[in-house]
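Record pair follows.
FIRST:
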Amino acid sequence: MHRRIDNGMAGSGIKYLVNYDVNQESNGYSVTMRPTQSTAYQEGLIGKFDVPSFSPNDLQNTIRNGSVFFKFEIDSKYGVDSVAANFKRLSKKARRGNIITNRDQNVPFEFKAVPYRDGSKTVIEVVIFAAETSENTFDFGILEKEIKENRLIFIETQIEEDKILIYIKDNAGGVPLDFLDRIFEPYFSTKHKSQDTGLGLYMSHQIITNSFKGSIVVHNEEYKKFKALLCA
């Protein structure tokens, strides 16, 4: 790895010789990198450039902040317009493509939905950043694993006398206990203020309780579960 300062012709820099081993594992490949040698140099005819700072910690941060591209396809029974609208609703528009938030980090991605059989096919290209899973260990596959996992949402409806019961649950891991009593408060959000307004569940609560004279509650079980009680 190399960091250099120059004027287009001559300059100064520092190089790290990094040895690496690639090992195949059950769920992919691991790469072990070991810096073994650093070499600094200075060039210039009249005044030589200073050698740029590039410490072993800087080298580690370069690896930590690296990224790879991951491309995959999703088949859906829904039409192109519906799929595209949902992607746009769940992401933010960027200068190029869109952005979603994963592990408190903005993740750029691009998607293209096309008609396929009775529904649509969506081609997605996403930038995957490394996650530090332990000291000096960076995993580039976490987001890919999360994408490939089965993400499920269950919706069940029941009618009891003059009431309509709606159960919504998913396998997203539940709501932290510290937040359970606050999730219906206005402007409360676990996301950064620039990413969310914290009004979605508050508005849902207001509509259900005030307009429908019903109730909405949340609790954790095997899947996160919302229960909305609507009075007919």
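SECOND:
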Amino acid sequence: MTSPRILLGVIGRPHGVRGLVHVHSYTADPSDLALYAPLYDDQGRSWSLVWRGDGVAEVRDARGAPLADRSMAERLVNTRLHVDRERLPPPDGEEFYLADLVGLEARNAAGIVVGSVVEVHDYGAGTSLEIAREGKAFESALRTQAEKICAKYINPPTTTPYAIMFLPTEGLYAEVIRRETLQAEIQSRCHVTIAGPTTLSAILTSFQMGFHMLALQEKGDEVWKVLESAKTEFGKFGKLMDKVEGDVSKIQKTIGEVGVRTRAINRTLREVSDPNVPQSTLLEFSDFASPALSLAAGAEED
């Protein structure tokens, strides 16, 4: 989740030639600024401070490396240092942080709303407010609410990565549509979609379809796992079929040999029963009875 950032200090002019700089701290005790590291500049880069004197500090980058020389320090002049709001203690009593003024209505002495606060400036000579009038106030309020929704309700994977800001009247929603880039900007920066009375149902339906597609994708992953397992089993089945085919070939070969032997036996038997065969070629009973009896006797002993 994103957290609003509070301006706590500004890097000033260089001090000496070794990369030291003057730092203007906005904390009650100026030395406390170093305790809030990491500090972030407007580009999102993180810095830390080590005090080397009264208002003079050594600035270190995200890797902990200090500025090498005066030229590097000169490039950081007027760099603003922020800290995440959630790291600061809550204000006491009627106190408030200047950043809390952003998005509030601005009224004149007569109590008439003249706009809203869009920025708080402090250039060293005092605090000033930037007031946006009419349409600018409306846009600023929408951006502020979108940032609050993003910070409070969007926390993936516990929540969805998007949220919906519902505007209760068609007039308000028409003002958003009239500003071509406003909705795209809020959706890009805060992941918040703005909906009106006539579009809320369609947006919720699209979200529901998205959830259904996600569920189908998860089921699809399970199906692919089953198919992968089936593919493995088919591989094993193919190997078994190859083995069965080999065994069948052996059986067919054996059956062929049995057929050959059967035909040979049939030829021999035909010769035995053929009256045209010369008598001298016929076998006497004693010629094969004795071996047959010997085989029978051997079988009985076994």
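COMMENT: The CA atoms of residues 238 and 244 lie 10 Å apart.
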